[in-house]
Fold each of these.
Amino acid sequence: MQPTHASRRILLPVRNWFIVVTLFLALLLNLIPFGRLPGIPDWVALVLAFWCVHQPLKVGMAAGFVLGLAMDVADASVMGQHALAYVLLAFAAAGLSRRVLWFPLSQQALHVLPLFLGMQLVMMVARMVSGAEFPGVLWFLSSFTAALLWHPVTYLLLIPQFRPEDKDVHRPI
Amino acid sequence: MSVVGHAPPPFFKRGPAPLVRLVFFVSLSLILLIADLRFHTLEWARLAVATVAWPLQRITWMPIDAAGDFGAYLTRQSTLLRENEELRRSQLGTANLLLRQQHLEQENKRLRALLDMRARLPVEGRIAEILYAARDPFSRRVIIDKGIQHGIGAGQAVVDDVGIIGQVVRVFPLTAEVLLLTDKEQAIPVEVQRNGLRAILAGAGAGMMELRFLAANAEVQIGDILVTSGLDGVYLPGLPVAKVVKIDRDSAYSFARITCAPLAGVERHGLALVLGARTALPPQPDDVPAAEEPSRGKRVKKKVH
């Protein structure tokens, strides 16, 4: 199966409502008004990337587009800015899904970090073309926080899919 | 599982290829971006989504509110006592002025009546609380807790106890967005208080502002106070705006680079006053063009014939 994957156990199939609920909760977390505090991760991007990597057939660019529009309104930013960034993120994450799951979790985080940075770069280009101010280098810190959170978030979101380990001495598999 | 007469279900039913979907969604996003940035046509969609999402947003403020309340609970008594003392002193200091102002207003009204001028309507204001700074890192906006329901409209000026902090740019049913003076898209007509030199002050980002299009030898000094000139019909004249902090007169450029710092607590949070929409400006002197227009029209007609 997956020799180097930390969670080697065979997972149960994911429930659709769980995906919806987690994405919704991520949206709520993003709505918390932290203002311009640097280093607050983009929770929607993190959870969206997670589901695009783990369930590329269920969560994709359409989900990214809808969530992006919601974020655009909540953020008081330009319509389409987050939508564009999340669609590109979903595409890249789905493309990565075949490969990245074979790595241990720390290296998976290194794989998704460029995705988050690229997403922020897309947003920055979209805004600075229209004459907005440069938000400062510290703004990119949120991508690194998101990558650091990849490990705990993986365990958190896979909990409902773990099956209880019952050791059967007669049937060792 | 196939039954005679029924085709087996298609095996790999996955819709269009990923690249096709990517192109579709990216072009849709780009259309939205351009529609919003260039033509500003999506305000109705934003209003609809914001209205639906209002309860959710209210829930998400709870953690921040709770943290703020907890911080206020732990304020030390000495701080409160000192603040109280300061407030009492400043109140005593301004009481004299207030009493005189009432007297002056009465006198002004009488004089205006004598001169048969229209009495100026008193400007009404509405106190609002600044809830939080918008998350968007590319602009400087804050959200206040008054909206359409409280009679706030786009374009109204927002001041605090020292001076102007910004202008309402977007209203929702219960909240409104205020574009701060330091945003790069914000500009305000001002004059130098010392000599009445008029200019335009624009946001420069990073909490500073810039006095634009003044000649390199313009008479501005460091420390000059800039007040609104009231020429735009949005801001009342004479409200303090900013202070000149740095002047860079490089003869290579035709304009001086004048950096200013806002006087009001633009990046600070607290209470603010949303000034009512200003009463209409005196009508533009359009009698002259009106008299000219018919003749111009005739000329055009002659040319056509």
Amino acid sequence: MGVTKEQVESSITAKLSPSYLAVIDTSGGCGASFQVEIVSEQFEGKRLLERHRMVNAALTEEMKDIHALSITKAVTPDQWKKQQDTEKSQAAA
Amino acid sequence: MRFSTTVPTDPDTHEDFQPTNKLESSGLSLKDIVEQDVKDNSVMIYMKGEPALPRCGFSSLAVKVLREYKVPLAARNILEDPELKSAVKAFSYSSSSGTVFVDAFVVANSVVVERMLEGETDSNWPTFPQIFIKGEFVGGSDIILNMHKTGELKEMLKGIGAADAE
């Protein structure tokens, strides 16, 4: 059996207390492949490699059944706000 | 009597019947191979398949990004050797930029930190490809792509092509 989107969400929520979290099942339903976007204060002061390690560690159990985990976003609330502002101004332009 | 599917830890079990660990017996030499790989090659990638024929979309992506920089790329196919796979995982855990790594985590003081320091190695980087640049573990395909976009990768690869092309 694969892993559900809800399991991934609850594990990340429990360990990284994200202010924003998006989990997308990219496996087509079999639960072996996920894409995640996380915004968390716990990423503050950490390099990208360390942030990805934190996510991997939060999903230790799930990773036994997940084939592919793509972390497309691992940012702090401040970084995220800046990114959104940039996107908005680009869209407006 | 209870029936159990787990291996008994009973000290009376004869050693002939104890589970063997192939990884442990060959781990040392494989670790040496990985260590040598990473030392000898400025850009080393452990991937699924060969650079010319990747067997996984993520490995393919990583190779594509690195090729953009025209740097010499050394690769090993972890699909050919499951034991190598374990050796790389253990190595990428231990080799990632020592002091910075530990300092940051001492400050962070979270559950994740404790688990990492306790040495749950595989959980910290369970996926492939795994890319090492100048002897340091950089990360997987998401990180490489991200660093490519931000320009960090260019900075990191500076000087490699020229030096190795001689």
